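Per-residue structure
===
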Amino acid sequence: MNSHTGHGHPTRSTRRTFLTASAAATAATVAAPFAATPATAGEAVVPPGPGHPIVPQPPGRELSALLREVDRDRIEATVRRLAAFGTRHTLSSQDDPVRGIGAARDWIYEQLSGYAAASGGRMTVELQSYVQQPASRIPTPTRITNVVATLRGDVTPDRVYVITGHYDSRATDVMDAVSDAPGADDDASGVAVVMELARVMATRRTEATIVFAAVAGEEQNLYGSAYLAKQLKAAGVDCQGMFSNDIVGSSTADDGTRDPRAVRLFAEGVPTAETASEASTRQSVGGENDSPSRQLARFVTDVAENGATGMKVRVIYRRDRYLRGSDHISFLREGWPAGRFTEPNEDFAHQHQDVRVVDGVQYGDLPEFCDYEYITRVARVNGATLWSLAQAPGTPKRVTIVTTNLTNDTTLRWQRGPEPDIAGYEVVWRETTAAEWQKVLPVGDVTEVTIALSKDNVFFGVRAVDRDGHRSPVAFPKPGS
């Protein structure tokens, strides 16, 4: 029996031990006794209160099979082929068949079109172009072209997730469109991740739509990704997550130390597109660590830190690195959740450098400095994330926490999602000082729940669950009635 509306009437024997859902729910009252137990060294502290500890979402059979298909040799071949175009500078030749950004563009389009041919019509590929008038780092009118492969979802196709790598490159002088700029790590590595995932996903059915994009103009000022984001916005798509893969090619730092099992994920706190009204609300209730991008990052760690990827995702609580910015910022500016994957420690001798040898040291972003096993694992992190997002219900919408009266209970309300296979919802909560969600309470297929736990003391969120156990990212509630 499904109930999408209704009001609960709490029944409690002791405060903080029971949850009450809408009266028509199959489980209107759920007991959740607690007992504080000391944590041992290295163990996460689980706060006392309703619910049970959150556990990660393990990869299912389909996802595990998909991740096994990610091919290290194909990834290396892609990086080396892109580097072989000499330079892929945005201002380089667009019609030379062997050198320059035009040759790279045409090769990427050909490869993605080949993958789409195996999709049964679900994947389409386009050259998305516009002419950028003179602007920062663009001295003359210049055609900017993104190569975009779209895998249309079968159930909720208007819900979209985007993954990008930028295929343009640069030398030491950002305006030098002539010198060799192989751009192996920055960012043939990211393009290789995008292309390999497009290949392995093209033959699979997804519920939501995934956009795989090799964008141009990143080194000049994020021009290609800004155009892509604006085109999606104009089309009215519901973009619920975006990831830029930028400099994901090496596990070796400039001092020679290696960290081959970690990838950084930059995720902003205060939203780039936050309005004055939204800022006022955030200041009054907290939430600096609960932006949609932070919820997306938590989802990544939930589904992509496991034996199938062999990786640890190190979430960095900032929008990007110092002095740098990547294509996820274009999506943040449109108000969408987004993050940037990048390698754990960088070697700046192999980024934004002319190819040369100085005092016996090789400079330049050359393919021999990439770690192809590492890029393959990064691709699996992205694959686990995209597949889990596209197969799960969407992030709940219109989630509110009722603040019309003073009470030590907490009432949450939300809008039921459109997915036909939704099994129900879960409320998650954590101490305000905790970085990750700590407890979860299944509440059934309802749109309102009252919990005997004070909203003044903890943070709450809501996520959807389908019949196969796929869980959405968490939605952080806004104050309401």
